[in-house]
Design a protein that fits this description.
9 helices
Amino acid sequence: MNLNFKKKVLCFGAIIFIAGMSVAISSCSSDEDGSDNRTKNALMDSVAESDEFIDFVDMSEVLSKKTLSYTSTLSQEEFDELVYNLNNDDYMEEFVTKANIKNEISAITKAKEKLLNNTDFFNLNETERTKLFLETAKRNSSIMLKTRSEVTSNECDQRRAQDYAWARAQADIALIGCTCLWEMPIAACACYALAMANYANDIRLADRAYEDCMRSIH
């Protein structure tokens, strides 16, 4: 066996060894990533099934519905005024009074504090919390569509359900981000009112997009 041939064999063997090591490392990395993902998914599932999370979502649903019940009575001009004054604490305090949502804000604040004391939820990062709220909202929107009496398989209905889910998830994330303690007077913190006003605006925009969509297919 000549020297050149030996060199080629050695080089080829080295290449195979390096390639094998790369595959092994990649496989280990993939296994670790998969394990991390499974751990995170298990953590999110644990939170989603917890009493604290379910109570928070339920309280948020009550607050959201009552807010929309009030904002649906506003004219476009009145609603535009609300949106214009989102950063006006005095105006938002008045909004809370007119919408009669003080008790609901107090309830959601207490539910939020309990949720934040849930160790699993506390260990979720911001992205994971967002994903959890969005998936929960999407699931609820899907249930809403399936339980409606009329056929809801068209694109406009599905798009509106997605917009509703996004709006609800954003509202829940905003509520979680409010730093006021429930012991404080509601007037001392307009954060909750702001979250609900933004939610109402997102819903109104979703409804407008739905109407435009329905006109385009008829």
